[in-house]
């Protein structure tokens, strides 16, 4: 072990006060520039209050910082100080200070919501605002609210400390200044990092720290700097521990460190006097085209640029070379991850913890609609059931993947084939997977080497006996359906219909058989990656029976839907209640019946009568409303406004009830012989208006006064018509003749 003298750091004079304050108040927010000693000095001091957990956003930093603390304190790793990151635990019951990644805390809180193992939680690098840090803060705050002996400390190199201090219930903010040396900032747009290094090297006074967006860019720069007269040292998360240590350790030669933003504020590299900043970083961002989050290359915000430049002026005046145009405008602040990523994973964490994402006390509450969408997706993936975690949800959470991709892994029971697909999808590779389309161009497949290895080893542990190295094509296709159940499309006459209900077409380079696909990548309306699936694999999301009425007849059709896609349609027997409901809407009450009711001055409550009349019917023609009038009403109606009038001849005549209140009947005049009184009906004894017809049915006279007709007009009519209709009776005396509708008997 190296012997180290603890160098004085800007934070040192404040440590005693900090510990005393946290002992009394159980909370504090500490803001100090990188290199001030926050991470290496505050957590060990806090162990005076009890077991302490220090949370870091990055694994590489967690490990390096645990070592650094151990060195400074002459503590042993795994004893007084330890670390826990995914797959690596170096601690015991005696460990006073545990350095862990933020996700570890979220996982621990599932089994121990009050975090009883610890007395102090320190969230470091909070300005990075990873979704895990946001969640960890909110969860820990809940635990602290119900415990007297849990302290919560937030540390940051650069934040607007007010919101987090308020969230912690009015925590005191310790803003610690540190000496800073002047930095000369130069802009060199359009040159590479390697070119910038070559340019500045002759005049460099110390080591050079370069910021690049990722491992691939670092590899490339390392190649470009192959024969330079200096130690070229990469520093990023997928390196092994030794390589990481080499980058941080002092060296006898000038160092050129090629780092991702892990060196921005998390790790301090000593002796840097020159910074080269590519101005780029990779951030996780939800991509609606692939429906998962991807790392995307973006311009850094201004506050990152300032942090990066500051790394050159920690121990002496320095220089920063920015590889962008001075006139470019950078966004002022970094955007917290909670605004960028899909909320399915954090929502699942909250559910697993026993909370409800809708009512959860988020540090920064996301939009309601985004929470709803996340919960709907989890339900669809089978990860949750109501507000409960399902066994599937339990399993898919183990993967450091978007829940959709975790679901794919679970459905495929692991397997190298699934790992490969999932890795590509999580990286957002735009070309189709070789198994399903054109192969990727060479060289594109080597981005995040660590991820595949890690997913595979989780899968092996999780599935144990069920794990297979290879699974068949159908299993993979079904697994993709399980992860993207809402992204199904069905072939139609031209193009495809998406489950969302909109249309799309396949990219020209794509040839796919079959009628159903799962869309894995869609840009605008162009499907750029998809796999074929079978119709039989789709479980309808909705079954409906639709009743329609068509020319008076009720028909029923059963439809099976898969979201917006109509899978199947067939005629079925109409439901009696539905039929009656539809008929009732269609049955217009017979106008004649209504006129009679009005004439009779009756009041009728129609809806229940219609309801009874349509029950069990499937055609409007079969509906007889009058037959369903209550007995009393029907009798009244028949007597006050009869449908027809009996005639002396024995026949009857249909009565017509007119709007104006008159009632009309008609009869051949021979049928009325002997009838003197005009019949009267209704509540007002309305005389029926009789149309008297000739034998050929022509009206001869319309009258309400039969008596005067017989007495006067009849004689005249008889004279006129007797010759024309000799076979009909034309008696002299209509009063005594037998009424008839027939001709004379021979
Ligand atoms: P802060 O958290 O405020 O950014 P740190 O506690 O990480 O500061 O670092 C404080 C100082 O300790 C740094 O300025 C650096 O000099 C030194 N230091 C930290 N980690 C290492 C390491 N792994 N190797 C060498 N020096 C280190
Ligand atoms: Mg730190």
Summing up helix and strand content along with how strands pair, one would put the structural category as alpha/beta
Kindly report how far apart the N and C termini lie.
145 Å
> What is the overall shape?
elongated
Name the CATH homologous superfamily of the largest domain.
P-loop containing nucleotide triphosphate hydrolases
> What portion of residues belong to β-strands?
15-25%
In short:
With about 750 residues, the protein is of the alpha/beta class. The chain is built from 23 helices and 34 strands. It folds into five domains: about 10-175, Rossmann fold, CATH 3.40.50.300; about 185-340, P-loop containing nucleotide triphosphate hydrolases (Rossmann fold); about 385-395 and about 400-535, no CATH class; about 540-640, no CATH class; about 645-725, no CATH class.
What is the strand and helix layout of this fold?
Layout: H1 15-25, E1 27-31, H2 38-46, E2 52-56, H3 59-73, E3 81-85, E4 88-90, E5 97-101, H4 102-111, E6 120-123, H5 131-145, E7 151-156, H6 161-167, E8 173-175, E9 183-187, H7 193-200, E10 207-211, H8 215-224, E11 231-235, H9 241-248, E12 255-259, E13 272-277, E14 280-287, E15 292-299, H10 302-310, E16 318-322, H11 337-340, H12 344-353, H13 368-381, E17 384-385, E18 388-389, H14 391-396, H15 403-411, H16 416-427, H17 449-463, H18 473-483, E19 488-491, E20 496-498, E21 503-506, E22 516-523, E23 526-533, E24 542-550, E25 553-562, E26 565-572, H19 576-586, H20 591-599, H21 606-614, H22 631-640, E27 644-646, E28 652-654, E29 656-657, E30 663-668, E31 680-681, E32 686-687, E33 689-693, E34 699-703, H23 706-722
Parallel strand pairs: 1-7, 1-8, 2-5, 2-6, 3-5, 6-7, 9-16, 10-12, 10-13, 11-12, 13-16, 21-23, 30-33
Antiparallel strand pairs: 3-4, 14-15, 17-18, 19-20, 19-22, 20-21, 22-23, 24-25, 25-26, 27-28, 29-30, 31-32, 33-34
Helix pairs in contact: 1-2, 2-3, 4-5, 12-13, 15-16, 15-18, 16-17, 19-21
The structure holds adenosine-5'-diphosphate (ADP) and magnesium ion.
């Amino acid at each position: 072990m190296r012997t180290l003298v603890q160098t004085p750091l800007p934070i040192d004079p404040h440590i005693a006060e900090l510990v005393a304050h946290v002992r009394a108040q159980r909370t504090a927010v500490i803001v100090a520039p990188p290199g001030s000693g926050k991470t290496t000095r505050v957590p060990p001091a806090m162990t005076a209050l009890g077991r302490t957990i220090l949370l870091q956003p990055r694994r590489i930093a967690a490990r390096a910082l645990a070592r650094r603390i151990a060195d400074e304190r002459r503590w042993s790793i795994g004893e007084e100080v330890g670390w826990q990151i995914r797959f690596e635990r170096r601690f015991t019951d005696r460990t006073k200070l545990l350095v862990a990644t933020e996700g570890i805390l979220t996982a621990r809180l599932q089994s121990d919501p009050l975090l009883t193992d610890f007395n102090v939680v320190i969230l470091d690098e909070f300005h990075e605002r990873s979704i895990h840090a946001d969640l960890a803060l909110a969860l820990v705050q809940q635990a602290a609210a119900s415990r007297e002996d849990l302290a919560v400390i937030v540390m940051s190199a650069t934040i607007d400390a007010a919101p987090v201090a308020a969230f912690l219930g009015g925590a005191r903010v310790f803003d610690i200044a540190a000496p800073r040396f002047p930095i000369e900032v130069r802009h060199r747009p359009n040159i590479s990092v390697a070119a910038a290094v070559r340019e500045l090297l002759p005049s460099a006074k110390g080591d050079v720290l370069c910021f690049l967006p990722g491992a691939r860019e670092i590899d490339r720069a390392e190649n470009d700097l192959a024969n330079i007269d200096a130690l070229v040292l990469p520093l990023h998360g997928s390196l092994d521990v030794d390589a990481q240590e080499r980058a941080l350790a002092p060296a006898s030669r000038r160092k050129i460190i090629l780092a991702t933003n892990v060196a921005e504020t998390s790790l301090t590299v000593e002796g840097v006097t020159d910074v080269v900043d590519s101005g780029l970083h990779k951030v996780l961002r939800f991509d609606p085209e692939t429906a998962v989050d991807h790392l995307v290359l973006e311009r850094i915000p201004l506050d990152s640029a300032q942090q990066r430049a500051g790394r050159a002026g920690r121990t002496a005046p320095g220089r920063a070379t920015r590889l962008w145009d001075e006139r470019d405008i950078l966004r002022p602040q970094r955007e917290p991850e909670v605004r960028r990523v899909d909320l399915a994973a954090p929502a699942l964490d909250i559910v697993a913890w026993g909370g409800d994402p809708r009512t959860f006390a988020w540090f920064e509450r996301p939009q309601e609609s985004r929470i709803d969408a996340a919960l709907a997706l989890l339900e669809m993936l089978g990860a949750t059931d109501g507000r409960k975690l399902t066994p599937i949800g339990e399993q898919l959470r183990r993967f450091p993947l978007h829940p959709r991709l975790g679901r794919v892994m679970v459905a495929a029971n692991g397997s190298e084939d699934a790992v490969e697909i999932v890795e590509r999808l999580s990286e957002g590779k735009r070309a189709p997977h070789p198994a399903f389309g054109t192969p990727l161009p060479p060289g594109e497949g080597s981005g995040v080497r660590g991820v595949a290895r890690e997913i595979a080893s989780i899968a092996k542990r999780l599935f144990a006996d069920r794990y297979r190295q290879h699974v068949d094509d159908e299993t993979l296709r079904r697994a993709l359906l399980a992860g993207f159940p809402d992204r199904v499309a069905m072939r139609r006459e031209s193009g495809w219909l998406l489950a969302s209900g909109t249309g799309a077409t396949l990219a020209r380079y794509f040839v796919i058989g079959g009628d159903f696909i799962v869309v894995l990548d869609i840009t605008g309306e162009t499907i750029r990656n998809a796999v074929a699936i079978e119709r039989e694999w789709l479980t309808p999301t909705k079954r409906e029976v639709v009743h329609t009425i068509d020319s008076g007849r009720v028909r029923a059709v059963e439809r099976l839907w898969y979201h917006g896609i109509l899978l199947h349609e067939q005629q079925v027997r109409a439901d009696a209640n539905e039929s009656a409901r539809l008929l009732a809407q269609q049955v217009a009450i017979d106008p004649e019946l209504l006129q009679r009711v009005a004439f009779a001055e009756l009041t009728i409550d129609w809806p229940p009568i219609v309801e009874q009349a349509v029950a069990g019917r499937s055609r409007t023609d079969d509906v007889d409303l009058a037959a369903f009038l209550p007995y009393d009403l029907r009798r009244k109606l028949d007597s006050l406004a009869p449908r027809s009038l009996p005639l002396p001849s024995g026949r009857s005549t249909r009565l017509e009830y007119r709007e104006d209140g008159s009632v009309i009947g008609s009869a051949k005049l021979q049928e009325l012989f002997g009838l003197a009184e005009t019949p009267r009906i209704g509540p007002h004894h309305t005389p029926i208006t009789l149309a008297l017809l000739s034998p050929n049915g022509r009206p001869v006279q319309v009258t309400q006064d039969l008596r005067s007709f017989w007495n006067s007009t009849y004689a005249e009519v008889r004279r006129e018509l007797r010759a024309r209709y000799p076979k009909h009776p034309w008696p002299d005396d209509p009063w005594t003749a037998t009424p008839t509708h027939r001709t004379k008997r021979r």
